[in-house]
Amino acid sequence: MWQLYQFPICPFSRKVRLVLGEKGVGYELVRESPWTRRDEFVDMNPAGQTPVMVDAGRGVVLIDSQAIVEYFEETVDKAVTINGTAAGRAEIRRLTSWFDMQFYRDVTGPLLHERLIKRIAHRVTPDARALREAMKGAVGHLDYTDYLLDHRQWLGGATMSLADLTAAAHISVADYLGGIDWKGHEQTARWYRGLKSRPSFRPLLAERMELVGPPSHYDNPDF
Ligand SMILES: N[C@@H](CCC(=O)N[C@@H](CS)C(=O)NCC(=O)O)C(=O)O
Question: Any coiled-coil ranges, and where (predicted)?
Fold first, then answer.
């Protein structure tokens, strides 16, 4: 049985969980708080980052969300998430990387640092300026997803793909942390409502971190 080392609002773990959910791969959750740098976890992943997936029975350890999802793309036929032509797959990979790098740098990373890690690990209050910057960054990113969805049915093209699951993973964490102002982003909100109602998404929306809760609209599939 696979075990996934993660914490509930890690966007990279959510990306993996959405892919596993779509593909119907079973796994057990193991709670890990990477900011504590637990020795046994750092021994397993020298980067000390979540997610990590382990199949102890077969001696397989997978590290890094992209490496993990590509492993399951290669080994599970159901629900291909990097699909289409070579050019189409390149576009899916570009957008996946866009959310994992740029969106994380501008939005998810600062929000996690300010609202969660500072509170839980350092017991200090968030920096209001950094929070404002992250929320401003989210507006710019959602303007871009609105633009993409004006031209395509899904972010990466005509069918749902890893680009959508990755974007939704990051946006869901930013939304949990109160960093998304949905006003004026109807295209993205409509797309996100569709993803939120998928069976792969529902368990994620039900989970909570200690000390830091989401706004009331967060798990409403119609919002
Ligand atoms: N490239 C990695 C990034 C993983 C990552 O940054 N995870 C965060 C939690 S969401 C983490 O463990 N941060 C702790 C650290 O970087 O020390 C992936 O895609 O898995």
Answer: none
pLDDT tens sequence across 73-115: 999 999 999 999 999 999 999 999 999 999 999 999 999 999 9
192 and 95 belong to one structural domain: yes
Q: Is 207 part of a structural domain of the chain?
A: no
Let me know whether 158 and 63 are in one domain. no
Q: What is the 3-state secondary structure (H, E, C) of the chain?
A: CEEEEECCCCHHHHHHHHHHHHHCCCEEEEECCHHHCCHHHHHHCCCCCCCEEEEHHHCEEEECHHHHHHHHHHHCCCCCCCCCCHHHHHHHHHHHHHHHHHHHHHHHHHHHHHHHHHHHHHCCCCCHHHHHHHHHHHHHHHHHHHHHHHHCCCCCCCCCCHHHHHHHHHHHHHHHCCCCCCCCCHHHHHHHHHHHCCCCCHHHHHCCCCCCCCCCCCCCCCC
Q: What is the pLDDT of residue 105?
A: 98
Same domain, 40 and 124: no
The closest residue, in CA terms, to atom 5 on ligand 1 is: 49
